[in-house]
């Protein structure tokens, strides 16, 4: 991930190396290369436009400094602006003051929601919480079993519908899960929901109904970083249809060009909160914009 972007940015900065002063032509040439590097990485066009304009404007104002030469200052500006488009500060889960904190997962099928439920379960347990995972994805055959398997691996409770007891209705399942969590004193409830291969009205309605039933503290939109620009369009559709409070990027271990990671925050206005980097339950962490920016630039 980001390998090609990293190389392209390095070569954009190369022209500035050792310069005592930056001319307008230097800045223009570098800005052009940064623009191409970002477009090639599949970053959303509007994000690229704003990013390059800001970098150009700030670079033109670079003063001669003793600590950093002009080239280094431009790298620093790009670093700061990358952190900015990735969300600035790390955004952490807002836990409810009273009653269980409800975290609902939404996204397309295959994005990695069920896996994420297990990862979150383990992570929450390590934070001293007592999580319960809820199988409200009743669309995909095996989704319930898959959640039970990851729940077992993580060592956390899974609430799954029993056959014949509202089995087909995810809203009912979610409601009963909430009652059960209160009764059994679980303090975080993670609700896995159904995804489709594409966005459809039925999926949105179901997610919105579950949302209304469980009144979540956080709705996490799970997005596969491998699908680039398309992922961003999907994110926008979910933002309109269900609304969400944060994004989880999955499959950051793949060789995606990084466009989704760099666009999703600006396009949806929602922070990236977690990142998944593999199939194992431990391949998961809170998302840190500054670390991601360093990874792109180092
Ligand atoms: P869901 O349909 O959204 O519930 O998606 P799943 O959780 O079933 O994940 C779909 C596939 O992606 C599974 O084979 C997972 O093992 C895999 N997967 C999930 N997260 C990651 C990740 O961060 N990296 C990689 N390489 N694979 C992942």
From TrEMBL:
Localization annotation: Cytoplasm
Q: What is its main location?
A: cytoplasm
| Reactions this protein catalyses | GTP + H2O = GDP + phosphate + H(+)
Q: Where are the transmembrane segments?
A: none
Q: Which GO terms describe its biological process?
A: SRP-dependent cotranslational protein targeting to membrane
Cellular component aspect of the GO annotation: signal recognition particle
What range(s) does the SRP54-type proteins GTP-binding domain occupy?
A: 271-284
Binding site residues for GTP: 107-114, 192-196, 250-253
Q: Which UniProt keywords apply?
A: Cytoplasm, GTP-binding, Hydrolase, Nucleotide-binding, Ribonucleoprotein, RNA-binding, Signal recognition particle
State which Enzyme Commission number(s) the record gives.
3.6.5.4
**A single MF term (Gene Ontology):** GTPase activity
Instruction: Say what the protein does.
Output: Involved in targeting and insertion of nascent membrane proteins into the cytoplasmic membrane. Binds to the hydrophobic signal sequence of the ribosome-nascent chain (RNC) as it emerges from the ribosomes. The SRP-RNC complex is then targeted to the cytoplasmic membrane where it interacts with the SRP receptor FtsY.
Free-text note regarding domains: Composed of three domains: the N-terminal N domain, which is responsible for interactions with the ribosome, the central G domain, which binds GTP, and the C-terminal M domain, which binds the RNA and the signal sequence of the RNC.
Quaternary structure and partners: Part of the signal recognition particle protein translocation system, which is composed of SRP and FtsY.
Which protein are we looking at?
Signal recognition particle protein
Q: Which organism is it from?
A: Aeromicrobium marinum DSM 15272
Gene that encodes the chain: ffh
Tell me the stretch of the parent sequence this chain holds: 1 to 298 of 511
